[in-house]
Amino acid sequence: MSSLNSPSDLSSAESISPAEQRNGRLSLLYIDESSNNRGLGEGVVLISLEGFVWEQALRLGWKASNNDAEYESLLAGLRSAEHFSAKQLLLFSDSQLVVNELTGVYETRDERMAMYADRARDLLKKFQSIRVEQIKRDRNSHADALACLGSSVDAKDTRKVWVEFVPEPNITSPVLCNNLDQAGWIRYLFF
Asked: Does the residue 50 lie in any domain?
């Protein structure tokens, strides 16, 4: 658990509820990356004070490392948070490197990672407060699913994906009526 310019009353990631989110005036930001043989993708989930959920699946169009992709997802998430006028952020990432470089626990030695960290810090200055927390992968499944989508789609075009809840099967069992006598059903046909 790490903080950057955070107020003392921010709740822990493990126990934050929607009411605490609203009372703490926090927007929640989850980021992740995914790589496979088709490419690299990023996932961003931003949850506003009002409960609005902004989801992004992004695909990187160049060869990059997993750490590059983690930072790219962070930058995309911070730009989205700024776009939606978030003031206080609780940022979740499962990347030990990104979290620890942002919070100063790790010294950024790689020149490319230093450029990413500097750009992220510039964006972080646009918020009143931010808290950065490393979470386990299983607590980042929403952003991970979007990152997997981004890494799997082989297209350069922007897409919109509609996710629909289907509460019951789209087929129904036929209703059989077997309590009519044989002559009775014929009567209904001719009237």
From this structure: yes
Q: How many domains are contained in the chain?
A: 1
Whether 40 and 59 have beta carbons less than 8 Å apart is answered as yes
The answer to whether the beta carbons of residues 18 and 36 sit under 8 Å apart is no
Domain-located, residue 180: no
In tens, the pLDDT along 114-166 reads 999 999 999 999 999 999 999 999 999 999 999 999 888 876 777 777 777 78
Identify whether 169 is part of a domain: no
Mean pLDDT (whole number) for 23-50: 88
Tokens coding 127: 């918020």
- Rounded to two decimals, the pTM is 0.75
Tell me the residue range of the domain where 125 lies.
Answer: 2-156
The reply to whether 122 falls in a domain is yes
Q: What is the CATH number of the domain that holds 123?
A: 3.30.420.10
| pLDDT greater at residue 169 or residue 143 | 143
How distant, in Å, are the alpha carbons of 27, 62, 79, 102, 105 from that of 121?
A: 18, 24, 12, 7, 14
